[in-house]
Write a structure and sequence with these properties.
The protein is an alpha/beta fold. It has a single domain, classed as 3-Layer(aba) Sandwich (Rossmann fold), CATH 3.40.50.300. The chain is built from nine helices and five strands; from the N terminus they run αβαβαααβαβααβα. The chain has a five-stranded parallel beta sheet, sandwiched between helices. The longest helix is centred in the first third of the chain and has 25 residues. It is globular, with a radius of gyration of 18 Å. It starts with a helix and ends with a helix.
Length: 231
């Protein structure tokens, strides 16, 4: 049986690649470009089901879905291997007090360079429109006129249970990895954007996946986007 995480990753790659091909066709077209569609900037607490909700939203709206695909985009732009940038992505989200590049061999990417490229990539996605962007500070980077900013939460015990199931972990190992990821995401938002990730005032919509089913939550996001951007 294919692990659920792998299925979601493959689907995410398909949605992102499809949208990028569309943008390329639009760029080559001689027709006057239409106004870009709004984006969904989705932040989620670990194990809250934000990735599943984001993919359902993207499928319903026929949008691109960009999670770790943003890292791929950065890697292509920098002409470095994906594993290198992906590794730095984990580092930069942790509690680090110096540039990673100081200890790297020639050709590696510093934290400041990564964040600059990350910001540019998210800004580009926002200008192109028609994208669901998962995490990476998109909810703090994109202005309200470009995106519906959504936070997905749930009680910690239920998030830990979901995280362990998705990652196929158990017991103490699951709890330790969950706590590490939770701390990394919180520190990433605090260190680089000066915000608390779970501050509800930063978002247009907050969803509790413990009391709202994933499909229902995705439908609420779609409805909120259509009401917020009726055109």
């Amino acid at each position: 049986m294919v692990p659920p995480a792998k299925v979601r990753a493959e689907k995410a790659h398909f949605l992102a690649d499809r949208q990028m091909r569309r943008w390329e066709l639009q760029r080559r077209s001689a027709a006057r470009p239409s106004a870009p569609a709004p984006c969904v900037a989705l932040t989620r607490l670990p194990g809250a089901g934000g990735e599943e909700i984001g993919q359902l939203v993207a499928e319903t709206l026929d949008y691109g879905f960009f999670g770790r695909e943003i890292v791929d985009e950065i890697a292509r732009e920098l002409h470095v291997d994906h594993w290198l940038v992906a590794d730095l992505d984990e580092r930069v989200r942790g509690s680090i007090d110096r540039f990673v590049g100081d200890a790297m061999v020639e050709g590696r990417v510093t934290e400041s360079e990564y964040l600059r490229r990350l910001t540019r990539t998210i800004a580009t996605l926002g200008r192109r429109g028609g994208a669901v962007i998962l995490g990476r500070g998109a909810a703090y980077l994109l202005p309200p006129e470009q995106a519906l900013r959504v936070l997905v939460v749930a009680p910690r015990s239920q998030r830990l249970e979901r995280y362990a199931k998705v990652k196929r972990l158990a017991g103490e190992r699951a709890a330790e990895e969950f706590s590490r990821v939770e701390e990394q995401r919180s520190e990433f938002a605090r260190r680089h954007f000066g915000v608390r990730q779970d501050d509800p005032t930063l978002y247009d919509l907050v969803l509790n996946s413990a009391s709202i089913e994933i499909e229902t939550a995705a439908n609420l996001v779609v409805e909120a986007l259509r009401r917020r951007f009726p055109s």
